[in-house]
Design goal:
The complex is a heterodimer of chains A (375) and B (272). Chain A contains 8 helices and 20 strands. Chain A is an alpha+beta fold and 375 residues long. Chain B is globular. Classes of the chains: A alpha+beta (375), B mainly alpha (272).
């Protein structure tokens, strides 16, 4: 395995394209961004993910130049961008509402930025044609925005913001207005275009699936702070806090006290009269420290008999079964009244499934299945 | 399609009669052959011919038109600027005061506006004439323009301006290339409103007009005091015709555009 993996964030010699240094933004009494430090590298597809009001849009608008930080510095390619107005920045933005100019044709919308930059006519025509081809809009060049469909409008907005070949493209909930099927197709299209053009993309979204699909790295935000920045796999498999674990996907949390067993394994006492659980952790815990074991539902298996030769087994009773087609999620009540979710792939037909409501079952998982968190 | 009930028919007839009967009588009598306004003596267009010979009326009409064009253009520029600042300017010192004050002329009795302008013009020693009427009409019609334009700006998607800035426009370019073309219908209807207001204003014009310049409403009003002549009926009919043609054309054009846009949107949604 010598193939180069795209991971500039692990390379200490790599210079970030964007650098937030202790950036704070306040609107009156409200702190939208709270002492935030973040690096984004060239050619990244970076996702800012969080619930509404977490500050992700403010962060993006500061990059575009529509807001300026209350304190702290934002650098683009090593240069402080605070004094540069939005129309002079090598940054373009694709707006959530697309903000297409209704009085101009698709062609003129795409050419708009190039005309402002006084690009010579021949170059401009070539560039617009290139953009139309990239977004498969050649047939619609003469139409006005109200004469094309939502998906096509989305592509016009993308073409317009890419036309000036910005160093950085900002995408504000770019797929929010599309229906689920079209959104999925467009996600792959976006990734394709990002790869072809080599532009750095920063996308704002509240849809975790979208962030996980398109991004090289995801920043999970909450109340103006970045909770974790990592690759989608890392965020999912090794969340750094309960907030992140809970925000991304489904998760079971078991609270308990940790006791070190050596070799990075910890024993977790979680309920009176139940055998302690075991989990490996890179994070160190002092003996008796309270901890939370975060377990993804698909890592929990379900059995009718107590399994042997397994690291952790917990008895329980099935309360609910959610049939999702390809998967079924079992809601199982365990001692202490907590309900755990176990997800099983439906490789067999429904009629031949072995469990039903009110069945007494055993849940099991390995020591490495979960993540042990302290907060 | 439901048939109209007798109640609906009655109220429709009464309503239209109330609105249009006086005008209809005026139009009919403008084609009266008799010199007496209230006695019908057969059809004739002679009063229209005589109107064209009447220098005083023609002069007044010309002054009115000049004043209306100039004052409505000035009012549109100022009113649009004021609306833009009020809607887009965010919070600045005295914003509430300014926005309250710009609408004051809407409710101010015209007599007071006219009188205060007269005092001002005398105070600064400005001779009354076309210029003073233009200034006075600009003052009172500007607020109407700014009401029309600001209501359009309130529903204007701000991100369009941000997109223009983002793509390299200066603030003024963004206004000229994006905002103005999009709000143009509101600006035009503001202009038309100001134009009509100026065209039929009597009170303020009579305060600010001088011997050198008289507008048509003043002329008509003073002529009527000496007795209604069929000539005035003819003149009024011409004015009604001009206004009616303008209004009908405008509404037909608007309606056709709307229908076409809806058809195109439907077609796009189906194709997409």
């Amino acid at each position: 395995m010598t193939e180069a993996v795209f991971a500039p964030w692990d390379d200490p010699t790599e210079k970030p394209l964007i650098r937030f240094k202790s950036v704070t933004k306040r609107f009156g009494d409200f702190t939208a961004i709270d002492d935030l430090t973040l690096d984004i590298f060239e050619q990244e597809f970076f996702a800012l993910l969080g619930p509404s009001g977490c500050g992700k849009t403010t962060l993006m608008r500061m990059l575009a130049g529509f807001e300026s930080p209350t304190s702290g510095v934002i650098e683009l390619a090593g240069e402080d961008i605070a004094p540069i107005p939005p129309n002079k920045r090598a940054v373009n933005m694709m707006f959530q509402s697309y903000a297409l100019f209704p009085h101009l044709s698709v062609y003129e919308n795409i050419a708009f930025g190039l005309r402002r930059a006084k690009m010579p006519k021949a170059d401009l025509e070539t560039r617009v044609a290139e953009m139309l081809k990239l977004t498969r809009l050649e047939k619609f060049a003469r139409r006005k925005p109200h004469q094309i469909s939502g998906g096509q409008r989305q592509r016009v907005a993308l073409a317009r913001s890419l036309a000036k070949a910005p160093k950085l493209l900002l995408l504000d909930e770019p797929l929010g207005a599309l229906d689920a099927k079209l959104r999925q197709a467009t996600q792959f299209e976006l990734m394709d275009i990002q790869e072809k053009t080599g532009t750095t993309f920063v996308i704002v979204t509240h849809d975790q699936e979208e962030a996980m699909t398109v991004a090289s790295r995801v920043a999970v935000m909450d109340e103006g702070r970045v909770m974790q920045v990592a690759t989608p796999e890392h965020i999912y498999e090794a969340p750094s806090s309960l907030y992140v674990a809970d925000f991304i996907g489904d998760v079971n949390i078991i609270d308990g006290q940790a006791n070190a067993k050596g070799d990075g394994t910890f024993e977790i006492s979680w309920h009176e009269g139940q055998a302690p659980l075991h989990a490996t952790s890179k994070r160190a815990f002092t003996d008796g420290q309270s901890c939370h074991l975060a377990l993804r539902p698909e890592k929990v298996s379900i059995h009718s008999e107590k399994p042997d030769q397994i690291d952790n087994a917990v008895p329980g009773k099935i309360l609910d079964i959610a049939y999702l087609g390809n998967l079924s999620t079992y809601h199982v009540e365990i001692p202490g009244g907590k309900v755990m979710k176990a997800q099983v792939a439906n490789t067999r037909r429904v009629s031949r499934r072995s469990f039903t409501w009110e069945d007494d079952v055993w849940l099991s998982w390995t020591n490495t299945a979960g993540v042990l968190l302290d907060q | 399609m439901n048939r109209l009930s007798w109640f609906n028919v009655t109220s429709l007839t009464l309503g239209f009669a109330f609105l249009y009967l006086p005008m209809l009588i005026l139009i009919v009598y403008s084609f009266n052959d008799s010199k007496l306004v209230t006695v019908w003596a057969g059809f004739s267009t002679k009063w229209y011919g005589e109107l064209l010979q009447n220098e005083a009326f023609l002069d007044a009409a010309w002054v009115t038109l000049k004043v209306a064009v100039m004052s409505s253009t000035l009012a549109t520029i100022l009113g649009t600027m004021a609306a833009y600042v009020l809607v887009r300017g965010g919070r600045f010192m005295g914003r509430t005061l300014f926005s309250g004050m710009i609408y004051a002329p809407l409710v101010m009795p015209e007599v007071i506006t006219g009188l205060s302008l007269l005092l001002l013009f005398i105070g600064i020693g400005l001779d009354r004439g076309v210029l003073t009427i233009v200034l006075a009409h600009t003052t009172f019609s500007m607020c109407f323009v700014s009401v029309v334009v600001s209501s359009r700006l309130l529903t204007f998607d701000r991100s369009l301006e941000e997109a223009a800035l983002d793509l390299g426009c200066s603030a003024f370019e963004a206004f000229r290339l994006v905002t103005l073309p999009i709000i143009a219908p509101a600006v035009i209807s503001g202009w038309l409103l100001a134009f009509t207001l100026s065209l039929d204003d009597l009170v303020i014009a009579s305060f600010t007009a001088g011997p050198s310049a008289t507008t048509l409403p003043i002329k008509i009003f003073s002529a009527v005091r000496l007795g209604v002549s069929p000539e005035i009926n003819a003149l009024s009919t011409i004015m009604i015709a001009i206004v009616a043609v303008g209004v009908i054309t405008a509404s037909l054009v608007t309606k056709r555009n709307l229908v076409r846009q809806q058809q195109e949107e439907r077609a796009a949604a189906q194709a997409g």
